[in-house]
Amino acid sequence: MNGPKRILALAGHRWTRRGGQYALLAAYVTFAAFPFYWMLITTFKDIHDLINTANNPFLFNMRPTLDNLRVLFFDTLFVRWLLNTLIVGVGVTVVTLLLAVPAGYSLARLSGRWGRQLAIGIFLTYLIPPTLLFIPFSRIIGSLGLQDSLWSLVLVYPSFTVPFCTWLMMGFFKAVPRDIEEAAMMDGLSRFGAFLKVVVPLSSPGILTVIIFTLTLTMQEFVYALTFITSSSQYTVSVGVPTFLVRGDVYFWGSLMGACLIVSLPVAVLYNLFLDRFVAGFTVGAVK
């Protein structure tokens, strides 16, 4: 009798543990997905449904409406702001890759005390608060004649994306064995050729991490975009949405949530599609 009872006890313990795991997973999924659900339901809620405190805020108490999206797309320059954000994001990403990838590779192959100190110095520049730099940067932008231009953001944003991405790529390049480069060079490739054809493909998770980090930071930056851009047609999403959808003490909550949902969904999809590579890019060398 002890055998069947023990088997039943083990089965019950296994199912209990599995049930606990599923419960924790369900709680985490609910916590992670709730902001998207809140943005989605608020986007399509009627204004009277939103302001009535007696209504259930988690459900539609009145018929869903498209008025909030109409205000967002036709009463503001939201599409133009999206395009401006995309232009700035692509430009900053290209500049960051062109500077951070070679710099990270150089620091990874630069041995000795000077290499370590230079790498630490580059990373420390990332820790300087951007709010301390926008005044001197504004004078530089004015001297270059780039006021109210998206190129001012493309020029300034790499100042805080390149240091961190250089440090990130340096750690990733250190994990690539030098023997692979030496073997490629023995096969006839130059060092630059070995870097492009061997090291860069092996470092694709780190490069993807740089792209995602740069795009995300560009989309959410506010201070520089507000300082350097003055005309509404040149705004990015982070400045245009709160400027036009918050008027005094009046908040267009439905339109605000619609803008947040439209902007955040592509980023969330991108993170989930490349989650394994993104984590690998940030944790490379952790075991070593």
Q: Can you describe what's shown?
A:
It is a single chain. By secondary structure, the chain is an all-alpha fold. It folds into 2 domains: 63 residues; 215 residues, Orthogonal Bundle (MetI-like fold). Strands 1-2 form a two-stranded antiparallel sheet. A hairpin with a 2-residue loop joins β1 and β2. α4 runs parallel beside α7, α4 packs across α11 and α13 runs antiparallel to α14. The model has no long low-confidence stretch (mean pLDDT 83). Its main location: membrane. Keywords: Cell membrane, Membrane, Transmembrane, Transmembrane helix, Transport. This is Sugar ABC transporter permease. Belongs to the binding-protein-dependent transport system permease family.
Class based on secondary structure composition and strand pairing: mainly alpha
Rg, alpha carbons: 25 Å
How are the strands of the biggest sheet laid out side by side?
1-2
CATH class of the largest domain: Mainly Alpha
The general outline is flat
User: What does the largest sheet look like?
Assistant: 2 strands, antiparallel
Q: What is the CA-CA span between the terminal residues?
A: 51 Å
CATH level-two architecture of the largest domain: Orthogonal Bundle
Number of helices: 15
